[in-house]
Amino acid sequence: MSKLKTIEQRQKELQSRLAAPAGHDELRKLEAHCQNAGERPRVTKESVITYILVHERTHGRIAG
Q1: Coil, helix or strand for 6?
Q2: Distance CA 19, CA 17 (A)
């Protein structure tokens, strides 16, 4: 079984994706996946990274 990433590790990973144009699209796809999984829509002021982290933590995909 693989070790879960911490919130900080996952946050840095997601932030690093913002450096590349393709990373923005990837984050939008992750956001859409979260919404399709039955999560509430992301509030405009809320960071897409925060939205993804909350979803992943709620579903046990990250530790902490």
Answers
A1: strand
A2: 5
